[in-house]
Amino acid sequence: METLLPPVFGKEHTPGGEPQARFFYFTQALFKTENKGQAMKIPGSYQKFKKNHPDILKAYEAFNRSVREVGALSEREVHLVKLALSAGAQMEGTMGSHIRKALEAGVDEASLEQIALLAMPTIGFSPGMKAWRVVQKKGEK
Question: Is the pTM for the entire model greater than 0.85?
């Protein structure tokens, strides 16, 4: 999935056209009600990349595993940090991926929400609100 931030995710890609409409279109598409309590779907672009470039992805995953294991952070803490970094970079598609992985690892929704709330005074209220809305919408229509 692409990020939502203009100009990468422009008006021509979504119904509504306005930034707010584009944001809600994205969150609705990513976090549909039928996904509640289930693993979220892996984006098709990732699946295609995995099929077309398995060696590159294998090397990337090995690198990712190495940096996760080098330090003292627990798996739960790693997922929370990655979500926070994604929120700070305003990479909403990546946030969705890290929300999915965090939930699969047993991270509770309150912890995910706190990450978004902590983002507000750090990266600004508006970008923090975007992060909060992504977390809030993960299991709704």
Answer: no
